[in-house]
């Protein structure tokens, strides 16, 4: 190839077909990057919701353990109904009832915002997470008598809307049970022990 012909070929630029092929390759690459970005965003949101819901559930487990300090049955007189804030639900709404724990200002609320902080009356934050509790006393299936008088099983469920919308914490727990595709949930089960310090005196 002569030097003149090489100069003419270099000055021609790109053909339309070369430009279209390059744009096609760019479009395919960009589509893959956008799809990966969407999948990453969804995964991050799911991971964040699980982490916050786990934190809320553990906070409620600790609240129930602190509440059990008031359950001490002085002189063998049961006081779980009169002295506890949330464990009283074990007798007023026994298993299998699942319900939101009673809201007590400065102690705990069943509604939480997107960061997991309790929402109290007057707070304008939208509810992102709701807590349900269910209590079960250990009984003998044959006779129905309690096996462990000083132990209660507490099941804590924290739920959220999978689509990211604010959640209505007044929703019936049965609705959540029958719509697993709509709600995300974290379950935590723990034992709550009666304060037995009075027994040692």
Q: What does this entry look like structurally?
A:
This protein is α+β, with helices and mostly antiparallel strands. It has one domain. Helices cover 37% and strands 16% of the residues. The chain is built from five helices and four strands. It has a four-stranded antiparallel sheet with strand order 1-2-3-4. It is rod-shaped and about 110 Å long. It starts with a helix and ends in an 8-residue tail after the last strand.
Fraction of residues in helix: 25-40%
Average pLDDT taken over every residue: 86
Q: Could you tell me the number of beta strands?
A: 4
Shape: rod-shaped
Measured on Cα atoms, how large is the radius of gyration?
29 Å
Order of helices and strands: HHHHEEEHE
Weakly predicted, low-confidence segments? none
Class from secondary-structure proportions:
alpha+beta
Major sheet size, sense and barrel closure? 4 strands, antiparallel
The number of helical runs is: 5
Strand content: 15-25%
Number of domains: 1
First-residue to last-residue Cα separation: 108 Å
Strand order within the widest sheet? Answer: 1-2-3-4
Protein name: Prepilin-type N-terminal cleavage/methylation domain-containing protein
Pfam family, one: N_methyl
Organism: Sorangium atrum
Summarize the structure.
The chain is α+β, with helices and mostly antiparallel strands and 201 residues long. It has helices at residues 3-11, 16-67, 80-83, 89-92, 173-177, and strands at 111-112, 129-137, 151-161, 183-193.
Key structural traits:
37% helix; four-stranded antiparallel β-sheet; 5 helices; 201 residues; 4 strands; alpha+beta
């Amino acid at each position: 190839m002569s030097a003149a012909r090489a100069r003419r070929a270099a000055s021609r630029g790109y053909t339309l077909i070369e430009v279209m092929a390059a744009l096609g390759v760019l479009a395919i690459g960009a589509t893959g990057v956008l799809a990966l970005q969407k999948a990453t965003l969804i995964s991050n949101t799911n991971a964040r919701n699980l982490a916050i819901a786990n934190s809320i559930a553990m906070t409620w487990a600790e609240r129930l353990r602190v509440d059990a300090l008031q359950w001490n049955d002085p002189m063998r007189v049961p006081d779980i109904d009169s002295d506890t804030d949330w464990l009283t639900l074990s007798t007023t709404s026994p298993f299998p009832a699942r319900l939101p724990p009673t809201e007590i200002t400065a102690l705990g609320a069943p509604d939480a915002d997107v960061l997991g902080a309790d929402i109290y009356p007057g707070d304008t934050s939208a509810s992102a997470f709701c807590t349900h509790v269910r209590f079960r006393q250990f009984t003998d299936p044959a006779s129905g008598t309690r096996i462990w008088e000083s132990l209660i099983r507490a099941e804590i469920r924290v739920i959220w809307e999978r689509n990211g919308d604010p959640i209505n914490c007044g929703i019936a727990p049965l609705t959540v049970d029958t719509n697993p595709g709509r709600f995300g949930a974290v379950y935590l089960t723990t034992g709550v022990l009666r304060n037995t310090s009075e027994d040692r005196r």
